[in-house]
Amino acid sequence: MKNIFHVIKDPVHGTMQFTSAEDAWVKPFIDSPPFQRLRHIKQLGMGDYIFPGAVHTRFNHCMGCCYVGSQIAQKIGLIDADRQLVMIACLLHDVGHGPFSHAFEGIFHEKSILHEDWTPYFLKDYETQDFFANYNLLNPKHHLTEEKFNEIGNMIMHQPVKKQLLADIVSSQLDADRLDYLLRDSHFCGVRYGEFDFRWMLHCLAIVNSKQGDRLGITHKGVGVTEHYLMARRLLTRNICHSQKKLAIEEYLVQLLANLAESLEFHAPYKHIRHTRLGEFLIAANRFNQEAERGNADELKRKFIEENFANYKELCDYDVYAIIKQLAQLCDSHAATQIAARIQHRKMPKILRLNYANVDVAQDELNEFKKKYHHQYQHWQLILIKSPHRSYSGEDDPIYVVNEHGVVNPINDYSIMIDAISDRLEHVAFIAIDKMIAEEKPVIDFTRHIQKAATAVSI
Known about the structure:
By secondary structure, the protein is α+β, with helices and mostly antiparallel strands. Among the domains are: 5-190, Hypothetical protein af1432 (Orthogonal Bundle), CATH 1.10.3210; 244-348, no CATH class. It contains 19 helices and 10 strands. It has a 4-stranded mixed sheet with strand order 3-4-7-8. A 4-stranded antiparallel sheet has the order 6-9-5-10, sandwiched between helices. It has a two-stranded antiparallel ribbon with strand order 1-2. A hairpin with a 3-residue loop joins strand 1 (5-10) and strand 2. Helix 9 packs across helix 11 (223-241) and helix 15 crosses helix 16 (335-344). The radius of gyration is 24 Å and the shape is globular. The mean pLDDT is 96.
């Protein structure tokens, strides 16, 4: 039978072709409600407040990741059964994200619940006799069993797997996830920070024999493109993902939801929100946060996720936007209302950039200022934000290079640049100041004092 290619036009990868077999492997998942939900969750959270083109979604990215995973699998010669598992895992790797992606994780005490914690519950929704039966009717030569699906889950959740090589394609320092999002985020933000030669990188990928068995690595010809790729990741993280304005407006979102959660049960103007899907979830999250502060977080987390998954799996960006719009129209001095108005009308905070070496001094000074003026200013109006990032980890899980003689070594041995950035934390630190108070004398005096005490730079 002649093979038919199913085509998806993509602004990043161009014409993404899937064979009939590949289409049958992934389409039942693509057409499922949990995956379709990702259409309504933006990839970069509130990044479009800074980069207007950044309205792409987790759905776009997961489709691209699935395609990249299939390209890698073909390049290194995986058999069909393994390629099937890789493509499904790549497709579903981000299914656990909440509204505004990583930003939503900030509503929980010490970010104790991440999107990965929800992922097993989304995957479990697929583990029904009906889903497997219908799937296997479409795939008579490549049945999906409970054992295979558990292996897919283990790849996504960084659990021990039978073939580490397959897991490397899904999650590693050379994975399909990063190879897609660097190019995709750059494209939609209108920048070139995350660009690298994807086709040459693909050409240079290879199976390498390490102490841990077969792993995904590169040939010696790929050292240069890997340098480019890792520097692209560093620059995209610093300038896009950790853009100070982006982090600040996302902190506004977290502060809005946290303040709303604390007040929903008793603040009369918010009573219409209490019984919405998001309202019920926030009330439960507030109770979780209060209990988590007292300890036993692991057991509390499991119980919270199980009890609130039904609401969480229906949430998307639109649920939050609807409430922001409602709150912004209220005449109310409550923090949630005030923050909603700032977000709705894009009243961005002023950024006071800090030298990270002196961030502790700045934090102490900020705490003293808030204590002195607690009747005049609300907590969210001046917030110190810190965001560390590491571009490459050569110690925990290095990228391996196989040279022309078949010898395998970590890429640090071949690259001065990669060795220089390996395992180094870089930091972003700043104070976000509500512009509505930025010109008031106490705040002006405070910022001048901070600039002097902590060698800060105002931008």
